[in-house]
Amino acid sequence: MLESVLIANRGEIACRVIATARRLGMRTIAVYSDADRDALHVRLADEAVRIGGVAPSDSYLRIDRLLDAARRTAAAAVHPGYGFLAENAGFARACDDAGLVFVGPPAVAIDAMGDKARAKALMADAGVPILPGYHAAEQADDALVSAAAEVGFPLLIKPSAGGGGKGMRVVREAGELVDALVTARREARAAFGDDTLLLERYLDGPRHVEVQVFADAHGGVVHLFERDCSVQRRHQKVVEEAPAPGLDPSLRARMGEAAVAAARAIGYRGAGTVEFLLEGDEFWFMEMNTRLQVEHPVTELVTGLDLVEWQLRVAAGEALPRGQSALSLAGHAIEVRLCAEDPAREFLPATGRLAHLKFPTGAGVRVDTGFEAGDTVSSHYDSLLAKLIAHGADREQALARLQRALASLQVVGVTTNAALLSRVIAHEQFRAGGVDTRFLDRYPELLVPPADPPNTVVLLSALALYAAAREEARTQARAIGDALSPWAVCDAWRLNKPGRERLELEHDARHWTVTLEQADDGGVHIGLDEVPAGHAAQPVAERTTGAGTRHYARFDDDPQVRTTVTLDGHRRSLACHVTGDSVTVWHEGEAWSLARRPMSREPEDVDAQGSLSSPLPGQVIAVHVAEGDSVSRGQVLMVVEAMKMEHGIRAPDDGTVVRVHYRTGDSVAEGEPLLVIE
Ligand code: MV4
Fold it and tell me: Residue 244 and residue 211: Cα distance in Å, rounded?
């Protein structure tokens, strides 16, 4: 085995490579930019070398500095990870020239696949299915126009130097072709410095199915089955799984053989991925990625192999650890990419300090990340926070495990796409299996977060803030050694009356008012007093809540376990994080952050005569009592809507209703008596 490896990368993939290299007894060397001085990959490595400033062009893309770092540390090998220089043939050559083992394919194989037109010609010769199209050197308009007539419409223009969907254009009819060629050339030249184009028959809704291949330096080539990566947004993969749902064994074998033929045709070595478009049971070569991919963990989980170990062994000159007949699939694995980005703001990358970070654990769950709590997510690099991967005996179990994993994920400090991921894997169409590349276009609602928190979340947020405040007060009391003093008790207790608190909570400029009242047995009576207008009553535990309903909640007795709450007899662990006046509550895959507005005592909405008045000018939207009814303290008598809020009018004490002045639908002025209680 190689003595040491320098990882010319950062983030989760650097951490991933370090883990295997260490397990194999190798010395691990990290590199870092100024932004990554304290990053996890640096902390994990045995040694680390600074390679420059924050910009990738001044650090992770600097071949000279990377080679210099390898020389200074006497590294035996260089692992490029993915992204940055992973598919840069110049880097592979520079490593060879410096006597370093490049953990990747030969430079000529990177070159062969980097040019899409050349790759297609090579694949056609090797008998790999390719889409009908034009990929010759002649690029004059009339050559392309006559080629297009042969290909037929709709067709796709692809830049030969591109990849990953960049610069592609669909042309629906012949009349649009020449204009499209002009634009496509200009874009290709700007993006890749090369305006060679190729034409291809356009498939309307293909699946993206890719095959993992491995080759050694002794003529051994195998495939490690396929991954389905059809769920993408703007050519960014969102979900990846292995095996591809619904792929029958004979199609799997045909695709595997085609991928092996592709690797053989270019004298491949190491880990590679052959991407295919699949429609029905027909598939066509799309491109080959000459690196280890982000989504390799799903292949690892269904094959039981460590692909980084295979890469390092192959790079060291060993033969492939297993032949094709010794490889098999076990179960199903699904990966989602957790990114620091804001789906509500056009997926703008989110940055900030990870004030709180808790990743899921448990059977069948794997998390690959380069971050720990307290780390900062900067704007200089990609937004991948972590990959959450679940493995199960079958797809259903893998999905169930992933769903629970996402539900127990906690990230505070940067916005993420976690809720979107939950919605995607919960979607009926996705659960049915075998969605195509237009899945997210077809269900745009998956990308949009729900506007308002459910009422349960508002109540749980209030409970979490209330409990945190009480615990804080107890801690302070203990600190001053005067825990028994009535002044140290901060539970809203007040003379002759049970303690009562009003909390005003805010989310997205919408407000809720919650009243909490200490019960004699240590529990809390809690109710929503005011909710934004149009906010429907929703079930909370076994009851329905809207403005007015009262609930009963308790916390676990152990003050350390403030995270267990029983609401109306439904005990559950409450995933919440309180910082100052804000609370984040995780509920059914969504993370909700609500802020507390300055706390006030419940206002006295009772006038001297015992009549109840309207807090604001508004309209009566519900009357829950009639004259002569007995009522108990806290009971909601009427609901008034004012200023787009619903206000519950509660009985200030036990008594009897003697007058009801208004009916549903009536308008009321501010301060107007609504009803009278004796
Ligand atoms: C296509 C195609 C339809 N027809 N080629 C996108 C990424 C790039 N590697 C190739 N891509 C496509 N090529 C033909 N002839 C549709 C896509 C495509 C796509 C492919 C895989 C995953 C997601 C995609 C989303 C849109 C378009």
Answer: 10
